[in-house]
Amino acid sequence: MSTKDAKTFAQQAQGTVQDAANSLGKAAQQGVNQVTDAGQKVVDQTCKVVKEGIDKATEQAGNTVSGLEKKLGLKK
Question: Would you say which domain of life the source belongs to (predicted)?
């Protein structure tokens, strides 16, 4: 193998390694993005459930207070 052939081969090998590293980097970033998106969905869903629970508890408390006011004659 001539020096020129060896140099060309080395350049091709380096290019192949760089392409593989770039592909690995992209795959890793996609994995991170998917985990981040999934985590955000969990946070969003948790916030929604908590808000619905608070809204329901607030409504029930309001109804209870209103019922007590009526029973005590404070409200008609």
Answer: Eukaryota
